[in-house]
Amino acid sequence: REALQRDPQQRIWLEVEWEALENAGIPPSQTVGEKVGVYVGASNVDYQNSVVADQSAIESHFVTGIALSIASNRISYVFDWKGPSMTIDTACSSSRGALSRALDDLDHDKVPLAVVAGVNMLLSPGPYIGFSCARMLSPTGLCRPFSADADGYVRSEGAVALVLRKGRAGDPGGRAERVRAEILGAGVNSDGRTVGVSLPSVAGQAALLRAFYDRLEVEPAKLAFVEGHGTGNQLGDP
After folding, report:
1. pLDDT category of residue 89 using cuts at 50, 70 and 90
2. Is the sign of the CA dihedral 72, 160, 16, 60 positive or negative?
3. What's this model's pTM, rounded to 2 decimal places?
4. Is residue 104 part of a domain?
5. Does residue 109 lie in a domain region?
6. Is residue 176 predicted with pLDDT exceeding 70?
């Protein structure tokens, strides 16, 4: 009965967290009761909207089943982790915001281990209608980031989880863990007031990148690979 009232995204979060721990070579049983921080990026409330549409089906588990705050708290509950547990909603950059907060807590030694997760499931036609009315979605069903022919983005589903520990790549500190990559840092800012509440600023994004590269002493020209957030429209890809 509880599962029927629970956002499917909560189940996916638990699954990818378990997989991430296994992939990192960390038995979940060895983390029970530890001060592990949980940082979840979430903004999708499709399931909540679909359940609310039939109010006669709402039962006692509905509140914890659809609350975004429980997305992170349920992970802490299931794994019995005692560290910070929070859900961060910054729309399409929610997972990115969660990662930034996790890195901050690791950097300040607030937690010895952090897990970051994000998931997006498309369960309701409502957002499609809203985004289409706002001319955000591509009418052709093709996303063309940074192209003169860009006419919108295409919604998609996905799930990811990371296990983070402070240290240096290749140095697990004597632990039998698999280190996949090293994160040098993260940067976050806001564009403030632009021509629209959901519209970005070229100057704001450029300022963030300059400050980020300067702080980490990284020369952009030496980067071998860049992955960008391309919304596939003229305003979103300045």
Report:
1. very high
2. positive
3. 0.90
4. yes
5. yes
6. no
The answer to whether position 178 is within a domain reads no
The yes-or-no verdict on residue 14 having pLDDT over 80 is yes
Q: How confident is the model at residue 169 (pLDDT cuts 50, 70, 90)?
A: low
The b-or-e profile of 151-166 (16+ CB within 10 A means b, else e) is bbbeeeeebebbbbbe
Residue range 44-64: average pLDDT? 80
Question: Tokens 């090293």 map to which residue?
Answer: 182
Question: CA-based angle 124:126:132, to the nearest 5?
Answer: 125
Map tokens 């309701």 to a residue: 124
CA atoms within a 13 Å half-sphere pointing along the CA-CB vector of 10: 26
If one counts the domains in the chain, the total is 1
- What is the C-alpha separation between 45 and 69, in angstroms, rounded? 12
Residue 115 within any structural domain of the chain: yes
Q: How far apart are CA 61 and CA 64, in angstroms?
A: 6
Residue range 162-179: mean pLDDT, rounded? 76
Alpha helices in 67-143 (DSSP H): 68-79, 94-107, 126-133
How far apart CA 123 and CA 96 sit, in angstroms, is 22
Q: Is the pLDDT of residue 173 over 60?
A: no
Report the distance separating Cα 71 and Cα 69, nearest Å: 5
Among the listed residues 186, 28, 182, 18, the one whose alpha carbon sits nearest the alpha carbon of residue 101: 186
